[in-house]
Amino acid sequence: MDLPVMPPVEPMLAKSAATIPPGMQYEAKWDGFRAVVFRDGDELELGSRSGRPLTRYFPELVAALKDRVPERCVLDGEIVVARGGRLDFDALLERIHPAASRVRRLAETTPAAFVAFDLLALGDASLLATPQRERRRALEDALRAAGDPVFTAPVTYELDVAHGWFERFEGAGLDGVIAKPPDLPYRPGERVMVKVKHERTADCVVAGLRPHKSGPVVGSLLLGLYDAGGRLQHVGVCGAFTMKRRQELMAELEPLRMPTAEGHPWQDWADADAQAAARLPGGPSRWTGKKDLSWIPLRPERVCEVAYDHMQGDRFRHTARFRRWRPDREPAGCTYAQLEEPVSYDLAEVLGG
């Protein structure tokens, strides 16, 4: 492979904002695997944001990209899987499997798509120093003849349209809006774009904690919600505390600490069959590898309010943000019924956009 922009490339990133800024290029924020496509003739590589290669997991996408993108190019975009007219991140996660036979089967049953939103190189020319607006025009020209499963992300320069997308597209599984300065060159690894994501709050039961890697202080709090059957389901974690707050939380929660998980709603967390039947902490992950997922059980007696962006099935898609303790709330009242559901919106309408 001999391209003007060679792998690995750290994708250009975004910083969070509370509102959509004016005077930008706007796109939907896709919920998939960020990927940079490097194609040089018959050679094609899918590089992840972390530098981990994704090529072997998406053979059907490799074939489609070779058929639909220019022979020499570097594209920035998102690998997604859709089910029932919306993005399905859980189905996408299943595509990361060590067994080649499983990879081939999933390529047939849950095929992936690639949504391109930037062009880093074309032919013998690097476009890294080219302004965003010009790269966008070049991207549209380069992928004009492309088709399913290779798409060009919809774009607008109208703020009111971006606000409409922010409200409507969530129902198709997208989680916000990305704003890019039109004159911005491509700056790998830098947070120079703006992301605006949905934020909601929920009252959750604090039923456990994981220690911080630095020592005996809180790393994250394990959150639970009761389902319709009265079972406490693990819905995610909240973290991002200061070191001082981590120490304070460990002291605050010490009276709730249980010597073992016996008698805890998640006492069977280490059992594979139990993991398959319910949402429990400590489940296996092909992403975390050998990362220690053990946790300290707490009596599920305290409630906290957290902020979250959106749900992926029955769990928080991303790490929640701790807002405050809720001593006025009873744990039994922390149910899924409090969660807001976005209005449904067909993903095909987004991609046709």
TrEMBL record:
Belongs to the ATP-dependent DNA ligase family. The lineage of its organism: Bacteria, Bacillati, Actinomycetota, Actinomycetes, Kitasatosporales. InterPro entries: Adenylation_LigC-like, ATP-dep_DNA_ligase, DNA_ligase_ATP-dep_C, DNA_ligase_ATP-dep_cent, DNA_ligase_ATP-dep_CS, NA-bd_OB-fold, OBF_LigC-like. It catalyses: ATP + (deoxyribonucleotide)n-3'-hydroxyl + 5'-phospho-(deoxyribonucleotide)m = (deoxyribonucleotide)n+m + AMP + diphosphate. It holds the Pfam family DNA_ligase_A_C. Its EC number is 6.5.1.1. Residues 216-329 form the DNA ligase ATP-dependent C-terminal domain. Keywords: Ligase. This is DNA ligase (ATP). Gene3D superfamilies: DNA ligase/mRNA capping enzyme, Nucleic acid-binding proteins. SUPFAM superfamilies: DNA ligase/mRNA capping enzyme, catalytic domain, Nucleic acid-binding proteins. Residues 11-197 form the ATP-dependent DNA ligase family profile domain. GO terms for biological process: DNA recombination; DNA repair. One of its GO terms (molecular function) is DNA ligase (ATP) activity.
